[in-house]
Amino acid sequence: MTAKEWDNYWGDKKKNRIFKIFRTHVFARAVRYYTDKYFSREGVFVEAGCGSGQTSIRIVKYNRKLIALDISKKALEEARKNTKFDEFIEGDIANLPFEDNSIDGIWNLGVMEHFSEEELPEVINECHRVLRKGGYLIIFWATKIAHYQLLLDNYNKLFKKNFQLFPDEHTRAKSKRHARELMSKSKFADCDIFFSWRDLFTDIVIVAKK
Asked: What's the domain count of the chain?
């Protein structure tokens, strides 16, 4: 999707008010859990595809520098309301504006499913490029087995609709096995994969170590 299309999505205040509660009370707690568990307490960390920044409001800063990066100006305007971030960068996750081996950790939520399977290795390997040795990539990857998605798929099938809650999602993970297969096409060799109650069984969480 283009920056303009994402600007249109993040500019829809009514739609984003609907999802704010889930982002801040469910996803944000899960993001805090995984970042606390895997990220070191100091260093430079990037939310690559930060969107509104609402899912990161509960992250504990410690001595971390937290950078919000997104292709959408509108998204970054919203992300600035999250005072945990130290820097805001307009940029593309497929062409990250960082030096090789310069970032201690990267995370995102609701990003990878918007790329095709053909595009994904390039995007994931770009994260691998900028991470330092021993750094972690944490991905919350939208799934086809989430409760709301199953209901939506059945609704669309029954009524012959094409109703979508989010912009085009080309690669929803079908299972933990599928997520592992997607990651196997990248340079990350060490991955843990979770599907748990921490985000109410909504996303598959992938934790990959460089």
From this structure: 1
